[in-house]
Fold:
Amino acid sequence: MQKAEGIPSPEPIPNELGNNNESAKVPLMITRDMRQQLADRGLSKENISEIKPEDAWEILNGKKSEEQQTEQSKLTPEEQITNIEGEIQNHQNNIDKSAESIKSTRTELNKAYEEVGLPPPEEEPPSISQEKERLERIKSEQQEKQKQKEELRNQQEKEKLIQEEKEKILQEKLDEIFKEFEAFTSRDLQSIFKSGKTRGGKNIESSSMGELDPEIAKSLAKAFKEGIKLLPQILELLPDLLKKFDKDLTKEAKERLEKKMEEDKKSEKEKTTKPEEQKPKDESEISENKPLEKNIKQDPLHSKIKKPAA
Structure:
């Protein structure tokens, strides 16, 4: 199709990155197209202005330096979620701008064709097609960020449940230890108070927590003597108690949660598959299937009605 006179020809968007393969050279400066792509990926203008060309190149080619990975791993799940939410918002801003750009370009082109007495072209102009591709890319990246956010939320919730279960298990183990302390003689307890060991010089063996470190045994014996039996108060005396048994507690907590989840799924499945109980029939209702004669006999006046003679 020949280009009509007076209709602006949209300039093609340059692609300084080429096909983004590894053999391409790292540019000496951040180009206009690179800035646009960095913005599409959620980077703010401030970040883009401070970033080095080689770092921008790595980001656009899906690479991360070891330093960046280490820095990311230091962030808490909540901090990571906050960062991702900022990127999602930047993506949304770019989506809105891109949609507006497509609408504006289409309006201008239609107006230009109308001025020269031509109908709008059936095919999309290259400028709109490129902007649409860019829009789809931004939307795809935004969906990926949403997915990452959801995964972090699930991870955060799971870690919270595991932590709560670990504390519950540890409390149960402490309750068992205190029961064992109740069986000790006063002389045995006195020895534990002083050295954290039995009168024979051996470490305390607990059925719930195994062999106890003398310092932990001393602190627990002190808590037992003072009537301190709840975990939050004991952790004030032994702040590293959870860490001491973290590996075993984490394993047991995960097993408990998995078992509970399986039981919940089974219970939910049984509820959905259980047939509805049939409602008992109302005796006051007269069934349509019953003969009329039987229904009449239920009427006390029926006996007073005389049948006509044959």
Summary: The chain has two domains: 32-64+76-160, 163-269. The chain has twelve helices and two strands.
